[in-house]
Amino acid sequence: MEIIWTPSKCVHSGICLVGLPKVFRRNERPWINLEGAEAEKVVEQVRKCPSGALSLSETDLLAGESFEVTVSASGPYIIQGPVRIKTESGEVKDFENGCALCRCGASSNKPLCDGSHRKIGFS
Questions:
Q1: Alpha-carbon distance 118 to 108, whole Å?
Q2: What is the pLDDT of residue 8?
Q3: From CA 22, how far away is CA 34, in angstroms rounded?
Q4: Cα distance between residue 20 and residue 38, in whole Å
Q5: pLDDT digit string (tens) for 22-74?
Q6: What is the mean pLDDT of residues 103-109?
Q7: Among 8, 26, 67, 93, which is least packed by CB within 10 angstroms?
């Protein structure tokens, strides 16, 4: 796992130091000790960073999480597991437990399903 720290973004809230003091150690070098906690705990703590100064490499994000896609009969793609969706406008939406993506093209809440497939008789 690789943790990225961007000092220019850091507001020094101390959330990382308090949350996992054996991982994030202000007075030691290197100040991040990945041996100090289980990987899941480290990921969880990094995601709590209020400024975004702490992040995980994209490779780590993809390796650490998986999702499953199910094509429902006459309905949406059901995604189970954490997923991030970036819209056409660049907006990023995170879904920790998954979501349902429109497959019929009729949703007024694209890319999410709003049940329109029933109204249009999608099959």
A1: 13
A2: 86
A3: 9
A4: 10
A5: 999 999 999 999 999 998 899 889 988 888 889 887 555 555 556 788 999 99
A6: 94
A7: 8
| Residue keyed to tokens 């008789």 | 121
Q: How long, in residues, is the chain?
A: 123
Q: For the sheet containing 77-80, what is the strand order?
A: 68-71, 77-80, 98-101
Structure tokens at 85: 């969706």
Sign of the torsion angle spanned by Cα atoms 93, 98, 103, 106: negative
Confirm if 101 and 71 have CB atoms less than 8 A apart: no
Q: Alpha helix (H) ranges present in the chain?
A: 15-19, 39-47, 58-64, 116-120
Output DSSP code: residue 93.
Answer: E
Give me the sign of the Cα torsion angle 105, 108, 114, 119.
Answer: negative
Q: Can you tell me which residue has the tokens 């705990």?
A: 41
Instruction: Please give the structure tokens belonging to residue 34.
Output: 């990945």
- Strand 98-101 to strand 92-95: parallel, antiparallel, or no bridges (unpaired)? unpaired
